[in-house]
């Protein structure tokens, strides 16, 4: 006598449910981290503005030079064996401030997805934790500031007040970006914020390196991680395409370090980045949004080319050498391409899992 049908289907249903939960959690972590990073960037600017207003009131006795400038100087010496020019130290310290604020926001945003308790007191608890862990512990241990007991009470109040503003603004911006996460997780026929943000980020990365995002998308597509539909996008699903594009990306990394290479903002450079961005953007789009994503990614690639070109010139001038900046740019292009292509796969798997659940119901 055959076993009851429900006993056969139950393990399959449990497996399907576990798969959906796992994918949903990963997608939420990615979205939360992105929202937190954007919120941390905005909060860093708010923190700077607050400090400029209250510095005359608190009169803090901070490190000289500031810890952020010392961190930038150490990084420059480590990478290029030469320090940052004195005229660029203030700008480099500001850059480090924003990088740390954004990175802290990414961690906070991801944690908020699975540990809502970190958002208590409207983000003020996060601000207190950031002030204690970063200013009071990490910075002195790194040798970038004196021990906490060697600063005045006013200085400590100034630091905690600044981080309370940082935490409060981070949480408010994060909430706005993630307010409708349940609705955003469901398929939509219209244009969503994610439909704009994902190809825009892909385009910005493409502005640094022409072949990195298309190669990353081709690699995940070859592993059946994306549904690319009909030609010409379906060609990206070939393992040969992934191998060829990966080789081209490596060749681009090598060529970028050679003298006499045309600037990325020249017409050939812009054309290549625009085409690479359009291809990667269209391939990573959800069904029905390929042309829209290609257009957004193309614009992002053109903007990314100009932004990254100016930043590379400024950083190379500040450090006195271009090669370390070029290698850092390679690393950003690789990591960014891999992260965005990986997120595209997660989003595709989420759609597939939900469709299977609806069909099974």
What would your notes on this structure say?
This protein has 361 residues and is mainly α. The chain folds into 2 domains: 180 residues, no CATH class; 168 residues, no CATH class. The chain has 12 helices and no strands. The longest helix is centred in the N-terminal third of the chain and has 54 residues. About 2% of the residues have low confidence.
Number of helices: 12
Main sheet makeup: none
> For the terminal residues, how far apart are their CA atoms?
27 Å
Mean pLDDT: 85
Low-confidence stretches: 5-10
Q: Domain count, please report it.
A: 2
- The secondary structure category is mainly alpha
Order of helices and strands: HHHHHHHHHHHH
State the helicity in percent bands.
over 70%
Number of strands: 0
Radius of gyration: 23 Å
Principal-axis shape equals globular
Content of β-strand: under 5%
Q: Notable features of this structure?
A:
mainly alpha; 12 helices; 75% helix; 0% strand
Quickly describe the structure:
The chain is 75% helix and 0% strand. With 361 residues, it is mostly helical. Helix 7 packs across helix 11 (290-319) and helix 8 packs antiparallel against helix 9 (239-256).
